[in-house]
């Protein structure tokens, strides 16, 4: 579980690495990629009989497919290759791969063959690679529709054809893979937006290339390795004062539950004391389910707090804006969520105060809140989630997490992280409030802001994953249930970090692996 995190590169970065390596690479990168893909295919269908269908396109992705086909034939598998283009029009490396395949006795047909009586053992998408920026039409669109209808495993090479490797946006007809073998390093579009729905299980074939040695990676996939150094045992001689005082400010009329969820999450993660300041004048004076929490009126939160979260159930009335301004002026780590973000998006003076803060600020928008902060549509945010997260972080000189499928954490200096833990059952009320509580709880305990946010986002999803494995969800999972699960996962991490032996492989080990090619 504590293996190093995986670098992520946008298309331009991958192209830069390839450009540095292609002139001198022996064997060629295409030969390495095709071999690696063939190796993955063999492992994927080792006991599955029948022929393999590889659909090759008119560029280098098709060349990878020709190398793969040759390697699989040499391994004794029956292969059928469909290629509608002209061999003479292929790029040089792809043309060589085509010639080597046919010289080895391989056949090529110009249209997709009918499926055999017992079906294909595997269908492979080697049509278009990471550079595609347009909708696939005509013959190739029809091919993809046919491939998607096959009941066999469906393997994409590098990226499913039709999917933007930078953004995770599908361009019309898109290959829907059960497995994706991607080359050199991860790309952001595989991990966020619609990418996970089209990629299936992802394997990284590094092709014996240490990508960061050629180009520093601005992005990383989140694993607990990024915050392992914070997972330290507590001294036996402990008291609650060692573990901070967290404040939660929100809970307006009809929304008290949001503040309580955040407070419970912070307390369950080990915060020494949690104070909840409620705006609802008729709100409770005690949380009878969890009387450990200390409830106050919003104006009566303690002055001395280790960290403060504002937003869960805050509302957008004038009084809320005044409380937000006061919070922004406090010299403590601050988590801004929900209506706090909506207020900032509508008020330039609040934006200026936020950008001038010296203490850490953490922003946790969902796509609609991010759109309000950037003055664009929600669709525009989703069209390039990574850029939207970076824009928010840089504009407000803060850490930001753009929540959603493949939550993206961005820093003000342009670095970014993508989280792969979690599942669709988390699309339910109160989940964002729990995340806010997890973040402020770690901040209150003295965690550095960046690692607190990374850990909380990953923990949030990992807790939901654990519950799903135990039969709780994904459908019908509640935010409250994730709080106790997060405590369990977090304590498991502490034990693993101390013992150095894995107990729970976790989400990232099941869905993201990195390997060197043959």
UniProtKB/TrEMBL annotation:
Region (Disordered), start-end ranges: 499-518
Domain YjeF N-terminal: 14-215
Residues given in the record as (6S)-NADPHX binding sites: 60-64, 129-135, 140, 158, 258, 313, 366, 433
Catalyzed reactions per annotation: (6S)-NADHX + ADP = AMP + phosphate + NADH + H(+); (6S)-NADPHX + ADP = AMP + phosphate + NADPH + H(+); (6R)-NADPHX = (6S)-NADPHX; (6R)-NADHX = (6S)-NADHX
Cofactor note: Binds 1 potassium ion per subunit.
UniProt keyword terms in alphabetical order: ATP-binding, Isomerase, Kinase, Lyase, Metal-binding, Multifunctional enzyme, NAD, NADP, Nucleotide-binding, Potassium, Transferase
Compositional bias segments (type: Basic and acidic residues): 502-511
Keyword Phosphoprotein in record: no
Sequence similarity: Belongs to the NnrD/CARKD family.
Full protein name: Bifunctional NAD(P)H-hydrate repair enzyme
Natural source organism: Thauera terpenica 58Eu
């Amino acid at each position: 579980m504590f293996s190093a995190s995986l670098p992520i590169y946008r298309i331009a970065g991958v192209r830069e690495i390839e450009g540095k390596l292609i002139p001198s690479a022996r064997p060629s990168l295409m030969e390495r990629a095709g071999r690696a893909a063939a190796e993955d295919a063999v492992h994927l269908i080792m006991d599955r009989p029948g022929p393999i269908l590889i659909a090759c396109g008119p560029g280098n992705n098709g060349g990878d497919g020709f190398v793969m086909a040759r390697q699989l034939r040499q391994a004794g598998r029956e292969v059928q290759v469909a290629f509608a283009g002209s061999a003479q029009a292929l790029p040089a490396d792809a043309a060589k791969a085509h010639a080597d395949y046919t010289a080895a006795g391989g056949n090529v047909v110009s249209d997709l063959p009918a499926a055999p009586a017992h079906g294909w053992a595997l269908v492979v998408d080697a049509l278009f690679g990471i550079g595609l920026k347009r909708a696939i039409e005509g013959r190739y669109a029809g091919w993809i529709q046919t491939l998607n209808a096959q009941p066999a495993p469906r393997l994409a090479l590098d990226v499913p054809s039709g999917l933007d490797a930078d953004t995770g946006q599908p361009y019309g007809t898109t290959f829907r893979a059960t497995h994706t073998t991607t080359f050199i390093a991860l790309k952001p579009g595989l991990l966020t937006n619609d990418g996970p729905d089209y990629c299936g299980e992802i394997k990284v074939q590094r092709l014996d290339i240490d990508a960061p040695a050629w180009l520093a990676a601005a992005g990383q996939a989140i694993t607990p390795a990024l915050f392992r150094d914070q997972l330290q045992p507590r001294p036996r001689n402990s008291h609650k004062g060692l573990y901070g005082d967290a404040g939660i400010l929100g809970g307006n009329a009809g929304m008290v539950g949001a503040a309580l969820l955040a407070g419970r999450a912070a307390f369950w993660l080990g915060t020494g004391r949690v104070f909840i300041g409620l705006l609802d004048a008729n709100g409770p004076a005690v949380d009878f389910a969890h009387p450990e929490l200390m409830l106050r009126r919003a104006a009566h939160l303690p002055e001395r707090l280790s960290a403060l979260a504002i937003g869960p159930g805050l509302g957008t009335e004038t009084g809320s804006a005044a409380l937000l301004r006061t919070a922004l002026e406090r010299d403590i780590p601050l988590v801004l969520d929900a209506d706090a973000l909506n207020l900032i998006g509508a008020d330039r003076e609040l934006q200026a105060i936020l950008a001038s803060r010296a203490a850490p600020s953490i922003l946790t928008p969902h796509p609609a809140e991010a759109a309000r902060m950037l003055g664009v549509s929600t669709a525009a945010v989703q069209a390039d989630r990574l850029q939207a997260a970076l824009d928010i972080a840089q504009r407000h000189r803060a850490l930001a997490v753009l929540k959603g499928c493949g939550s993206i954490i961005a820093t003000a200096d342009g670095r970014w992280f993508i989280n792969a833990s979690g599942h669709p059952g988390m699309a339910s009320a109160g989940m964002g409030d729990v995340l806010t509580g997890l973040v402020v709880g770690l901040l209150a305990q003295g965690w550095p802001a960046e690692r607190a946010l990374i850990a909380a986002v990953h923990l949030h999803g990992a807790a939901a994953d654990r519950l799903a494995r135990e039969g709780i969800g994904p459908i019908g999972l509640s935010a409250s249930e994730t709080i106790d699960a997060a405590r369990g996962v977090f304590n498991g991490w502490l034990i693993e970090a101390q013992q150095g032996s894995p107990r729970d492989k976790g989400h990232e080990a099941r869905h993201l692996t990195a390997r060197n090619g043959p």
